[in-house]
Amino acid sequence: MRQFVIIFPLLALVIISLARTAKVEAATGLNPSAKLVWHYYKATTCDDAEAYIRHQVEKFYKNDSSIAPKLLRLLYSDCMVNGCDASVLLQGPNSERTAPQNRGLGGFVIIDKIKQVLESRCPGVVSCADILNLATRDAVHMAGAPSYPVFTGRRDGGALNADAVDLPSPSVSFDESLAYFKSKGLDVLDMTTLLGAHSMGKTHCSHIVNRLYNFKSTGKPDPTMNTTLVSQLRYLCPPRTQKSQTDPLVYINPDSGSSNRFTSSYYSRVLSHNAVLGVDQELLNSDDSKEITQEFASGFEDFRKSFALAMSRMGSINVLTGNAGEIRRDCKVTNANYAA
What we know:
The protein is mainly α. It has helices spanning about 5-20, 50-65, 65-80, 110-120, 130-140, 175-185, 190-195, 210-215, 225-235, 265-270, 280, 285-300, 300-315; strands at about 25, 35, 200-205, 250. The strands form two sheets. It has a two-stranded antiparallel sheet.
């Protein structure tokens, strides 16, 4: 594991050095042959691409701050399945976005709008994969996260079937969660940091009812959950007794709620046993992740710096560059299925 107790002072230097580098390899351990470039589109016929993207994100964010958690989840769902190739954006009866794990995904509208704007200004140049990475960075920055460098030059991949989606349940154990992140080339610091994205957004009651009523088939709530939180969530999430029953949404971090602000309160809630999702509360079941959680709860800047690096690493997973993949004309369909 990277030495998280000494890495935080260095993270700012790492980010600064990355920003000054003309060309870098994808993050170590992810895909060393893939080349991503700082301000890639400055050297193409779309040198204002990032400004166009930021402007559209600002317009959407002013009307709906929930685009920040929506885009974060959309990027995670894309990068962690088959790499950051925008395959999750493709539509179809059995497409990746129809997988049960991707139920409730949002943010597609803003990506489609940005793509339309870019195609009108510099057609066939900016990939949907880069749009998703850049738009997410800009949205979470508006919510309070650092504006980390996003290296660009990704190309778009082909379609995946829904059964290819291997995203873990939000109820998995710590060991299962860490094994999944490690399978993507990420480590315990990356995982603990990226789970901090749960400082914003909502989840369906169906993802937490087991913790509220029948934890591990005991007929009782999860003993690690604060009893006050159990009562509050039971009021919002009644027992599921019928398949046709509605499945309400609840805030993953009630401290943030509808403000959708990026804060370190998520980690304070984990430490006080007030995490809504089981996977989040599991961070206390490892000495390493517990120590990182304590560090982030007491030092917001440490979390912000680590988040910047973890997002850069996740955004470099199995990227397509060079002649691989394509630059889609429409993010919803591959070019072979595009109808002008």
